[in-house]
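Please check this record.
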Amino acid sequence: MTISDRVRIKDVRVLSDGWTTLKNTTFEYRRASGEWQMQHRETYERDNAAAVLPYNRAGRTVILVRQFRLPAFIRGYDDLLIEAAAGVLDNAEPEERIRAEAEEETGYRLHHVHKVFEAFMSPGAITEKLHFFVAEYEPSMRVSDGGGLEHEGEDIEVLELSIDEALAMIADGRIIDAKAIMLLQYVALHVFR
Protein backbone atom coordinates (compact mmCIF):
# COMPACT_ATOMS: atom_id res chain seq x y z
CA MET A 1 0.00 0.00 0.00
CA THR A 2 1.35 3.42 -0.93
CA ILE A 3 0.67 6.70 0.85
CA SER A 4 -1.62 7.61 -2.06
CA ASP A 5 -3.80 4.67 -1.01
CA ARG A 6 -4.03 6.12 2.52
CA VAL A 7 -5.02 9.73 1.71
CA ARG A 8 -8.33 11.05 0.34
CA ILE A 9 -8.42 14.81 -0.26
CA LYS A 10 -11.92 16.11 0.52
CA ASP A 11 -11.56 19.90 0.26
CA VAL A 12 -8.88 22.52 -0.40
CA ARG A 13 -9.48 26.19 0.44
CA VAL A 14 -7.07 29.02 -0.37
CA LEU A 15 -6.72 31.20 2.73
CA SER A 16 -4.19 33.66 1.32
CA ASP A 17 -2.59 34.10 -2.08
CA GLY A 18 0.04 36.81 -1.67
CA TRP A 19 3.79 36.26 -1.79
CA THR A 20 3.03 32.52 -1.65
CA THR A 21 -0.17 30.56 -1.08
CA LEU A 22 -1.61 29.40 2.22
CA LYS A 23 -4.14 26.56 1.90
CA ASN A 24 -6.39 24.68 4.28
CA THR A 25 -6.87 21.04 3.27
CA THR A 26 -9.46 18.65 4.65
CA PHE A 27 -8.57 15.01 4.06
CA GLU A 28 -9.11 11.51 5.30
CA TYR A 29 -6.05 9.58 6.39
CA ARG A 30 -6.02 5.80 6.77
CA ARG A 31 -4.23 5.06 10.02
CA ALA A 32 -1.97 2.04 10.54
CA SER A 33 -4.96 0.34 12.22
CA GLY A 34 -6.92 0.61 8.95
CA GLU A 35 -9.34 3.17 10.38
CA TRP A 36 -10.00 6.34 8.34
CA GLN A 37 -9.58 9.61 10.25
CA MET A 38 -10.70 13.08 9.08
CA GLN A 39 -7.93 15.70 9.43
CA HIS A 40 -7.43 19.38 8.60
CA ARG A 41 -4.04 20.95 7.85
CA GLU A 42 -2.80 24.31 6.67
CA THR A 43 0.06 24.25 4.20
CA TYR A 44 2.26 27.10 3.08
CA GLU A 45 2.73 26.41 -0.63
CA ARG A 46 6.30 27.47 -1.37
CA ASP A 47 8.29 26.73 -4.51
CA ASN A 48 11.35 24.50 -4.22
CA ALA A 49 14.67 26.24 -3.62
CA ALA A 50 18.42 25.66 -3.61
CA ALA A 51 21.25 26.62 -1.25
CA VAL A 52 25.01 26.62 -1.74
CA LEU A 53 28.10 26.83 0.44
CA PRO A 54 31.19 27.98 -1.45
CA TYR A 55 34.42 26.78 0.17
CA ASN A 56 38.12 27.32 -0.46
CA ARG A 57 40.06 24.21 0.43
CA ALA A 58 43.51 25.85 0.50
CA GLY A 59 42.42 28.79 2.66
CA ARG A 60 40.01 26.67 4.76
CA THR A 61 37.35 29.35 4.26
CA VAL A 62 33.66 29.47 3.39
CA ILE A 63 31.37 32.16 2.00
CA LEU A 64 28.16 32.95 3.89
CA VAL A 65 25.73 35.86 3.72
CA ARG A 66 24.12 38.01 6.40
CA GLN A 67 20.69 39.58 5.96
CA PHE A 68 17.46 40.65 7.66
CA ARG A 69 14.70 38.04 7.94
CA LEU A 70 11.29 39.27 9.10
CA PRO A 71 10.01 35.89 10.41
CA ALA A 72 13.10 35.50 12.63
CA PHE A 73 12.67 39.08 13.88
CA ILE A 74 8.99 38.47 14.66
CA ARG A 75 10.02 35.36 16.61
CA GLY A 76 12.31 37.57 18.74
CA TYR A 77 15.67 37.23 16.97
CA ASP A 78 17.03 40.79 17.08
CA ASP A 79 19.93 40.43 14.66
CA LEU A 80 20.68 39.75 11.02
CA LEU A 81 20.79 36.04 10.10
CA ILE A 82 23.98 34.45 8.83
CA GLU A 83 22.96 32.02 6.12
CA ALA A 84 24.05 29.96 3.15
CA ALA A 85 23.26 31.72 -0.13
CA ALA A 86 19.90 30.43 -1.37
CA GLY A 87 16.93 31.14 -3.55
CA VAL A 88 13.70 29.87 -5.05
CA LEU A 89 14.09 27.87 -8.27
CA ASP A 90 11.65 29.99 -10.32
CA ASN A 91 11.07 27.09 -12.77
CA ALA A 92 14.81 26.65 -13.38
CA GLU A 93 16.90 23.55 -12.76
CA PRO A 94 18.44 23.60 -9.27
CA GLU A 95 22.05 23.72 -10.49
CA GLU A 96 21.32 26.55 -12.93
CA ARG A 97 19.40 28.58 -10.35
CA ILE A 98 21.94 28.19 -7.56
CA ARG A 99 24.77 29.44 -9.79
CA ALA A 100 22.77 32.59 -10.55
CA GLU A 101 21.71 33.02 -6.92
CA ALA A 102 25.30 32.62 -5.68
CA GLU A 103 26.49 35.32 -8.07
CA GLU A 104 23.65 37.70 -7.11
CA GLU A 105 24.14 37.24 -3.37
CA THR A 106 27.88 36.58 -2.94
CA GLY A 107 29.41 38.09 -6.08
CA TYR A 108 31.18 34.81 -6.90
CA ARG A 109 30.72 33.12 -10.28
CA LEU A 110 30.97 29.46 -9.32
CA HIS A 111 32.17 27.11 -12.04
CA HIS A 112 31.38 23.69 -10.61
CA VAL A 113 28.59 23.16 -8.10
CA HIS A 114 28.10 19.74 -6.55
CA LYS A 115 24.71 18.61 -5.25
CA VAL A 116 25.08 16.89 -1.89
CA PHE A 117 21.47 16.23 -0.76
CA GLU A 118 17.84 17.36 -0.75
CA ALA A 119 15.69 18.03 2.31
CA PHE A 120 12.26 19.23 3.39
CA MET A 121 13.03 21.88 6.01
CA SER A 122 9.63 22.06 7.72
CA PRO A 123 7.50 19.24 6.27
CA GLY A 124 4.70 19.64 8.78
CA ALA A 125 3.56 22.92 7.21
CA ILE A 126 5.71 24.03 4.25
CA THR A 127 5.79 22.31 0.84
CA GLU A 128 9.26 23.61 -0.12
CA LYS A 129 12.05 21.11 -0.78
CA LEU A 130 15.63 22.44 -0.78
CA HIS A 131 18.45 21.24 -3.02
CA PHE A 132 21.80 21.61 -1.22
CA PHE A 133 25.06 22.30 -3.07
CA VAL A 134 28.71 22.92 -2.28
CA ALA A 135 31.20 24.54 -4.64
CA GLU A 136 34.90 25.25 -4.49
CA TYR A 137 35.76 28.91 -5.05
CA GLU A 138 38.91 30.93 -5.67
CA PRO A 139 39.29 34.69 -5.06
CA SER A 140 39.54 35.19 -8.85
CA MET A 141 35.93 34.01 -9.23
CA ARG A 142 34.61 37.16 -7.57
CA VAL A 143 32.93 39.20 -10.31
CA SER A 144 31.00 41.72 -8.16
CA ASP A 145 30.37 42.80 -4.58
CA GLY A 146 27.24 40.63 -4.44
CA GLY A 147 24.59 41.91 -2.06
CA GLY A 148 21.50 40.56 -3.80
CA LEU A 149 18.90 42.36 -5.88
CA GLU A 150 17.66 45.66 -4.49
CA HIS A 151 14.32 45.41 -6.34
CA GLU A 152 13.70 42.13 -4.45
CA GLY A 153 14.35 43.90 -1.15
CA GLU A 154 17.70 42.19 -0.65
CA ASP A 155 20.42 44.00 1.35
CA ILE A 156 22.99 41.25 1.80
CA GLU A 157 26.42 41.37 3.39
CA VAL A 158 28.97 38.81 2.15
CA LEU A 159 31.09 37.05 4.79
CA GLU A 160 34.27 35.07 4.21
CA LEU A 161 35.01 33.02 7.33
CA SER A 162 37.39 30.26 8.26
CA ILE A 163 35.63 26.92 8.63
CA ASP A 164 36.72 26.82 12.27
CA GLU A 165 35.17 30.23 12.99
CA ALA A 166 31.95 29.26 11.21
CA LEU A 167 31.66 26.04 13.22
CA ALA A 168 32.31 27.99 16.44
CA MET A 169 29.50 30.37 15.42
CA ILE A 170 27.12 27.40 15.27
CA ALA A 171 28.22 26.30 18.73
CA ASP A 172 27.76 29.74 20.31
CA GLY A 173 24.46 30.50 18.55
CA ARG A 174 25.57 33.17 16.09
CA ILE A 175 24.66 30.89 13.16
CA ILE A 176 21.12 29.51 13.57
CA ASP A 177 20.09 29.13 9.92
CA ALA A 178 19.43 25.43 9.25
CA LYS A 179 20.73 25.63 5.65
CA ALA A 180 24.05 27.05 6.80
CA ILE A 181 24.37 24.59 9.69
CA MET A 182 23.70 21.58 7.47
CA LEU A 183 26.13 22.69 4.76
CA LEU A 184 28.86 23.71 7.22
CA GLN A 185 28.64 20.32 8.89
CA TYR A 186 28.78 18.65 5.48
CA VAL A 187 31.99 20.45 4.45
CA ALA A 188 33.51 19.90 7.90
CA LEU A 189 32.97 16.15 7.49
CA HIS A 190 33.71 15.76 3.78
CA VAL A 191 36.03 18.60 2.73
CA PHE A 192 37.94 19.97 5.73
CA ARG A 193 38.72 16.71 7.53
